């Protein structure tokens, strides 16, 4: 049995581990938060909706390789220690993020731009595959056994806080520079700023000591000689790996990425909310819900991990479609009556089309309603020498919500992130307790990163792709996370144990 650290020391361990992990999540999520703008820079201007789908595919690629990073760095962590392994992952993540901010656009280097970004996203994914398992294991192996859920839940906050930080930096940068400058080159600043955060975190992590459990194993000569073989060739241990994946992390992953990333994508790309409005809604929802990671983590020390996590999955299955239908209904301005309009201000911009005498006239009309809501109605008309005026379909975008609806949306996002805290708050302690110390880093990292990186990380891409199919509705994409969560709920209910501390003393 390991000796618990004094309270002030365990919080130093949590602080040092959490800061680095938060920065890695910040680096990883900037890309997703800026998917629309990045897509316009990486692909031809006439790519249309495919630019967003291709950009989300590049975003998803970073998730797909996370399990490979879990194997590579998990093995290193079980062989050489937790501290130096997740120090290495921090350097790789920070360097990749900084370089993404320097890559030229499609106009400058053509398709080399998305290829280079894809390579760097793969490096990010590999690094993150090694980071989380190391940080969670490191904190868990310092924590007293009866409070492992509480202390590891602080690490669980870092993923959401990393997203919060990325959104905050993006909104501040955009507001300082202005929308046009931000879309032109200012979007690179959040990527470049990450190098400063990484340097600070590296300095702090260099001062950390190795985990006491791992140090004890090493001094006794009991560290694993082949963590991969011991993790996956051992039938009993491999069974626990599969159970952790299909009964817990798979469902937890889709709840996490639906409640935070797909929600943002849906509000911005499907509901056509204003850039700032969509991000402010998510920022407020995250701010209100984040303390519940620690609340549910601590509660899991008393009642066990299983039923808290499964309850979060069940609530997502039941409420996702009603929530997203509400998003659609409350942002439908297609049938606004004239009596509701306070002002209507048009602006007209005309450009000549290439190699023809025709021109494109764009009329952007900003409409303000009595309740404070507003939107921009776009009309693209081709002024053809041969055909006269050829009107195109109207598009409504940049919707700003009235205050009551704005706060209603914050409440709906808060509820979704509350479900995230239920499934995610206890999961680090749950995974740590499933596996013996000498192969813990490897064993827990793989199911976590397959569940989150593959099943969860693909939610924005797969859901957006499904919704783009002929005959689909805007809600069709939700069947993917609902289906995965339902499968995990069934398996977890039947096969997961609610016991705690099963292997903590190995």
From TrEMBL:
Its main location: membrane. It is a multi-pass membrane protein. It is found in: Cell membrane. CDD domains: MFS_ShiA_like. Residues 13-500 form the Major facilitator superfamily (MFS) profile domain. Keywords: Cell membrane, Membrane, Sugar transport, Transmembrane, Transmembrane helix, Transport. One of its GO terms (cellular component) is plasma membrane. It holds the Pfam family Sugar_tr. GO terms for molecular function: transmembrane transporter activity. Gene3D superfamilies: MFS general substrate transporter like domains. The chain crosses the membrane at residues 21-39, 51-73, 85-103, 109-129, 150-173, 185-204, 240-259, 279-300, 307-324, 409-432, 453-472, 478-496. It comes from the Bacteria. PANTHER family: MAJOR FACILITATOR SUPERFAMILY TRANSPORTER, SHIKIMATE TRANSPORTER. This is Sugar transporter. It comes from Pedobacter rhizosphaerae.
């Amino acid at each position: 049995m390991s000796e618990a650290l004094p309270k002030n020391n365990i919080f130093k361990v949590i602080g040092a581990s959490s800061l680095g992990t938060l920065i890695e999540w910040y680096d990883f999520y900037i890309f997703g938060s800026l998917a629309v703008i990045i897509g316009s820079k990486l692909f031809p201007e006439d790519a249309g909706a495919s630019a967003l789908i291709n950009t989300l595919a590049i975003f998803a690629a970073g998730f797909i390789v996370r399990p490979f990073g879990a194997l590579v760095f998990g093995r290193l962590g079980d062989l050489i220690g937790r501290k130096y392994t997740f120090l290495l992952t921090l350097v790789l993540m920070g360097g990749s993020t900084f370089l993404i901010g320097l890559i030229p656009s499609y106009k400058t280097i053509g398709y080399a731009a998305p290829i280079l970004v894809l390579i760097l996203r793969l490096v990010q994914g590999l690094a993150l595959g090694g980071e989380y398992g190391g940080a969670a294991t490191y904190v868990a192996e310092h924590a007293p056994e009866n409070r492992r859920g509480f202390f590891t839940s602080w690490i669980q906050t870092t993923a959401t806080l990393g997203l919060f930080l990325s959104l905050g930096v993006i909104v501040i940068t955009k507001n300082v520079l202005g929308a046009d400058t931000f879309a032109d080159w200012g979007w690179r600043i959040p990527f470049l700023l990450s190098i400063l955060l990484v340097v600070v975190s590296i300095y702090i992590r260099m001062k950390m000591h190795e985990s006491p459990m791992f140090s004890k194993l090493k001094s006794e000569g009991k560290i694993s000689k082949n963590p991969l073989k011991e993790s996956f060739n051992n039938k009993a241990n491999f069974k626990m790996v599969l159970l952790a994946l299909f009964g817990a992390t798979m469902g937890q992953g889709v709840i996490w990425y639906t409640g935070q990333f797909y929600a943002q994508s849906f509000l911005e790309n499907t509901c056509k909310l204003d850039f700032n409005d969509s991000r402010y809604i998510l920022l407020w929802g995250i701010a209100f819900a984040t303390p519940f990671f620690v609340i549910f983590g601590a509660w899991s020390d008393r009642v066990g991990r299983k039923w808290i996590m499964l309850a979060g999955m069940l609530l997502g299955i039941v409420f996702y479609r009603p929530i997203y239908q509400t998003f659609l209904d409350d942002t439908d301005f297609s049938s606004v009556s004239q009596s509701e309009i306070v002002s209507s201000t048009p602006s007209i911009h005309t450009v000549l089309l290439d190699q023809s005498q025709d021109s494109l006239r764009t009329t952007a009309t900003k409409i303000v309603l009595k309740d404070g809501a507003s939107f921009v109605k776009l009309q693209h008309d081709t002024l053809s020498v041969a055909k006269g005026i050829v009107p195109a379909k109207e598009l409504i975008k940049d919707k700003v919500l009235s205050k009551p609806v704005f706060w209603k949306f914050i409440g709906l996002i808060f509820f979704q992130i509350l479900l995230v805290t239920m499934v995610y708050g206890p999961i680090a302690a749950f995974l740590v307790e499933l596996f013996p110390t000498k192969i813990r880093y490897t064993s827990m990292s793989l199911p976590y990163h397959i569940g989150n990186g593959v099943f969860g990380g693909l939610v924005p891409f797969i859901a957006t792709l499904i919704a783009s199919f002929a005959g689909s509705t805007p809600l069709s994409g939700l069947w993917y996370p609902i289906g995965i969560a339902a499968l995990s709920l069934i398996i977890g209910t039947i096969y997961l144990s609610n016991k705690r501390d099963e292997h903590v003393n190995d």
